[in-house]
Amino acid sequence: HHDGNFPREYKDILELKGVGKYTAAAISSFAYKLSYPVVDGNVLRVISRLYGITDAIDTPAVVKRVYALSDTLIDKDRPDQYNQAIMEFGAIQCTVKSPNCDNCPFFDQCVAREEHLINQIPCKVKKIKRKSRFFHYLIWKDGDQTVVQRREDKDIWQGLYQYPLIETENIKVLRAADICKDYKGIRANQVTVQKISDVYVQKLTHRDIHTRFYHLLVSDIQLVIKEEYFLVDQKKVPNFALPKVIDAYLS
Question: With contact defined as beta carbons under 8 Å apart, do 43 and 36 qualify?
C-alpha cells in the first residue's frame, strides 16, 4: 500500500488498520514533527477546565471541541514538545483529584478555578445500569374471542392494554403445564399450545423487555376476575392502546 514504507502524512497514518486519531497524532507529532494535537484523558481534563467546558467529555461534540481548541494552542514549530508537555501537565499538575491550582501557570486564565468548578469538571455521561425483564404473553383463542387486560399497577405501560402476562426470571420457553393450569382467574377447557413466537425486545430507558407470545387454542373460556380481564374479538385487539412490543408483534 505504501511500497513497504511507513507513511509520513497524518491522513495516511490514520488509514492504517487499528490506528485511531490519538495514535496517528502521536506518531505524526513525535516522529515527524507534524502539528497534530494528541488528545488523551489528561488533555481532555486540562482543556475542559481551562475553558470551563461543563458538558460531558465523553460525548463526540465535546471531544471534537477539545480537538479544535487544542489545534489553536499547539506550538506549530514544536508540536512534539507541546503534546508531551500538556499530557504530563494533566498527569502531574492538573490531576483528577486535588489539582495543584495555587501553583498553576494558568491560575488567572482557568475558568473552572475562577467559577469554583474544579471538582465538577470534567464530567462524564452517567451510564445507566440496564435491567432485563422477561414477559410471556398468553394469546387465548376461543373461536373469534381472546382475552386482554389493562395494566393498572404502578409499573411500566400503566393504563395500556395487553394479553394476560406471566413474568419470569428468564426468557426460556414455558412448559405447557405452566401455561395450561388455571391462570390468575381465567379458566378454559382443552387448552392446546398452538404456536410460540421468537423473542421480541423493546428497549426502554432503564430496561430491556424480552417478550414471547404463546397462542393457546381453548374452549369454554371463563373469566373469574371480570374487572381485570375483557373478552374481545381478536380482530379488535390492534384498536386498543398497546405497548410497542405487542403492537410490533401484531403488525
Answer: no
Q: pLDDT by residue (tens digit) across 20-63?
A: 999 999 999 999 999 999 999 999 999 999 999 999 988 899 99
Residue type, 158: Q
Indicate the pTM of the whole model.
Answer: 0.53
The dihedral over CA atoms of 61, 62, 63, 66, expressed in degrees to the nearest 10, equals: 130
**Strand, helix or coil for residue 177:** helix
Residue with cell 501557570: 105
Q: Which CATH architecture has domain 131-250?
A: Alpha-Beta Complex (3.90)
CB 104 within 8 A of CB 180: no
Provide the CATH number for the domain formed by 10-114 in this structure.
1.10.1670.10
Rounded Cα distance between 35 and 23, Å, is: 14
Confidence of residue 188 (pLDDT cuts 50, 70, 90): confident
Residue 67: phi and psi, rounded to 5, are -60, -45
Q: Are 218 and 141 in contact (CB under 8 A)?
A: yes
DSSP tag of 234: G
